[in-house]
Design a protein that fits this description.
With 411 residues, this protein is mainly alpha-helical. It is globular. The chain has helices at residues 2-5, 25-33, 40-53, 57-70, 75-86, 91-102, 112-125, 129-142, 147-159, 163-169, 184-198, 201-212, 220-235, 243-254, 261-273, 277-290, 297-317, 321-328, 342-358, 362-375, 380-392, 396-408. The protein is built from 22 helices and no strands.
């Protein structure tokens, strides 16, 4: 079990596992046939897995929570629960699910480092950065192979705009994670994000090609990594060449495979960017059908959040900037329902800014950019975009100040 949970090495050929958990009828039937004679805790794990397979993440999380009340050192229950809470975007629960069992753990128990890494990430998502960093660094010292803990510290450094420290934290050789799970691509995504915020776009593209997406992959996290990175670059005026095409091919093939609400919006970014209108409309139709699925958390988020975001992404590239703004603006504080982290969801905040600028709503763009530079003061591209909007509004002094802030950003 420990090997499963700590992002260790996997056999070559397994690095393209699919996102859908334990969903085959054969798997469920086999497990149910063998349930007689198992312990109550094992039977509870089966309840959780069945709910997870049906897309009922809320039910699965509740089942794991019940297990952990009785067995707070059940690392499998904690890790699975932590992961699915993440995909519901419940930041406080992401922190508190670990806090509820934390005092039952100590350094003498196998898996303690993994618990520290999970707690670090939950604290990060609640902006409790100082404690999060201490726990995350301790986790990595105890268990350098735990990529979730490495990732937690990477998030903290990014959210605080500590770009040079972030680059140093992820200063690994290109092949450092080649024998790991597909999560390795997300670690490299974070490494590229430091360069992106610093304005070193050539380095971002080089990292993208070498380690973020060296080969086409339909793994859900690879799709999220690549689509959001390409979108961010294009919002900053960077030519990404034909890199969207292979991602759009994957998005077309995956239409109808509604596993994670967060991934759907990234599929649409790729389809919209490549002008694949027919495929984009097919995805929207499929999402509308899926939204009616009962007892499925991804479906519940689809109708109210995912569909409007997808429609907005498509509208913007069609030149319908005002429609994109009207779709996105009311959803700004609902995006967490689709899952992902604060850092990942930021691409949709940038999408709204682009739509506002495209529609000539410069005062709205100014407000949104003011919000963003105050939250991310070490973002060179955001300062330059802010300077452009201020200049267009006739605020020459403000624009000059913003350009000076952009020039001061280093990594």
């Amino acid at each position: 079990m420990r090997e499963l949970l700590r992002c260790r090495r996997i056999r070559p050929g397994l690095n393209r596992i699919r996102a859908r958990p334990w969903t085959t009828q054969w798997g469920q039937a086999t497990a149910e046939q063998r349930v007689d004679g198992v312990t109550p805790r094992e039977a509870s794990h089966l309840v959780a897995l069945k709910a997870w397979a049906q897309g009922n993440l809320t039910g699965a999380i509740a089942a794991w929570d019940a297990i952990l009340v009785e067995h707070p050192t059940d690392l499998l229950a904690l890790r699975l629960q932590h992961g699915q809470i993440f995909w519901l975007g419940q930041s406080q629960n992401l922190r508190d699910c670990v806090a509820r069992v934390y005092d039952a753990w100590d350094e003498h128990l196998p898996g303690y480092a993994q618990v520290l890494g999970m707690y670090s990430f939950g604290l990060n998502e609640c902006a409790e950065y100082e404690r999060a960093e201490g726990l995350g660094r301790r986790a990595v010292e105890m268990h350098p192979d735990d990529l979730w803990a490495v990732h937690a510290v990477a998030h903290i450094l990014e959210m605080q705009g500590r770009l040079a420290e972030g680059k140093a934290w992820l200063d690994y050789p290109d092949d450092a994670f080649d024998d790991r799970t597909p999560f390795r691509g997300h670690i490299w995504w974070h490494r590229a994000m430091y360069s992106l915020e610093a304005g070193d776009y050539d380095e971002v593209l080089a990292l993208y090609d070498r380690v973020v997406q060296p080969d086409p992959s339909d793994f859900y996290l690879d799709v999220q990594n690549t689509a959001s990175m390409l979108a961010r670059l294009e919002y900053l005026g960077v030519d990404v060449g034909d890199r969207w095409q292979e991602l759009a091919d994957i998005a077309e093939r995956q239409t109808g495979d509604h596993t994670l609400a967060f991934t759907e919006m990234h599929y649409m970014l790729a389809l919209a960017a490549t002008g694949r209108d027919a495929a984009a409309e097919k995805l929207l139709t499929s999402l509308r059908d899926f939204a009616a699925t009962p007892h499925n958390d991804a479906a519940a988020a689809t109708n109210t959040v995912v569909l409007p975001v997808c429609e907005a992404a498509l509208a913007r590239v069609r030149g319908e900037h005002g429609r994109a703004v009207s779709l996105l603006l009311p959803l700004r504080y609902d995006l967490a329902r689709t899952g992902g982290s604060h850092a990942q969801r930021d691409v949709f905040a940038q999408l709204l800014i682009e739509a506002a600028i495209g529609d000539g709503q410069l005062k709205l763009a100014r407000a949104l950019l003011s919000e963003r530079v105050n939250g991310r003061p070490n973002s060179r591209g955001t300062w330059l975009k802010y300077a452009g909007v201020l200049a267009d509004l006739g605020d020459a002094a403000g624009a000059e100040t913003a350009r000076a802030r952009a020039a001061a950003v280093t990594a």
